[in-house]
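Data availability (excerpt). The following record was deposited with the supplementary files.
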Amino acid sequence: MALEFLKKTAKKKNKSKREPKPQRSNPVFTAIAITISATFVAMIAMVSMELAILTGGFTAVAYIILLDSTQRRNWENKTDYNISALHNRQEDTAKELARQADEIVNIREKVMNTSQSVNWQNFVAQQNDEPIELTVKAKQSKVNNPVAKKPGPKTARQLFAEEEEAQASAAENEGPDMDTESFPVARPQELVAALTNNFSNDDPYAARTNLTEMVIKDLVQSAVRDGRVDIFVQPIVRLPQRKTRFYEIYARIGAKPGVYLPATRYMQQAREENLGENIDHLLLVHCLKIIKKSENVKKAAPFFINVTQTTLKNTAYMKELLGFLARNRALASRLIFEIPQADFESLSMPVLQIIDGIGKLGCAFSLDHMRQEEPDIALLQKYKIRFVKLDSAWLLREMATDRQFNDMVRMKKKLEANGIGVIAEKIESEHTVKELLDYDINYGQGFLFGKPDLPGAYRRQRAA
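Predicted structure:
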């Protein structure tokens, strides 16, 4: 196919630009010139033999120079033609390869649609016709059952297949939402459950029931196996206006209708069962779906997404994520990966190189649980650390004396001067906000501004 294409294009090129013919001297003209020169030399010989020899020598030299000039011009013309032809063939080859790549993508899409399996590629290709592919190889734990073997955790392909099947009809009729902080509407049953279960803290079981470790472990295994990890978001606001600038996205595991397990209740069991990477993967899948749905929204808020140390050290997964983001930079610009400071400091050089590559694609990073009063600014800038989070109670405690206050304010100004924002987290009272504003803190996060909740709940509040 490519050869036929190149032959056709070569014929078209030859019609418009043919190979230059070499310039050759006319034999008749050459004979006449030699005859005239010989006659002229003979006539001069009658006067002086020395003069005749000198004239004949000059004539021979002139003829040699003219012949060399003609040959050189022929060589230059032929070289120019060959270079131009080679360049045209390269362009034609590149166009043909691009065309064949498009045909391969179309064939793959038809095959995927026929088998009703949707993967990372279909997720974005549905809306922008760009091929995207990412194969996630997260570790999957073995769940032993003496009665029957349970199926393994659902892959990204299976997860998207289920989600697209549920949203296909609604997506055709929905127009773009122009709200600056919009999210896809949560399912009605989820909203009802969320509105009827308001808890005083992040642990929904604090005052209700005590779950055993075995029950939690079974809930985690079932959720990962069936891809039933629920997504919660919490706003990060700009102070003092309290206008939402970012959202942090969390994974929650449903225990029963309207009741969800926070990360503090299940992460230990997830690590023991080697399910942390699966949860991170499902969280990232949902986050990318939310970003994709709001890509046409003006000034859409970026998302903070927590990444565990195990996932960061899985170089195979991170390299595939790097390749995926390289093909989807529009998504990358709204992703902020959050890493605990202790985990960041323990990362090996290969992982840091991957983080550096992800940062160059447009993603930013945030350090959580920051406890360092003299951070390495150059290191933070090198790996695209754009935010640091400080516990509000720790921050106020570290500013108790005038000297501590001056040191902390100096650190804050130094960070902000180098493009690194400071976020005070776990703000739960107006008194804490007033104290933080005295220290000119620009960003805040906590229950006072909004608890982690279903995305649709925040959209509902804004509409009201």
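Summary of structural features: Residues 115-121, 126-151, 169-208, 460-464 have pLDDT under 50 and may be disordered.
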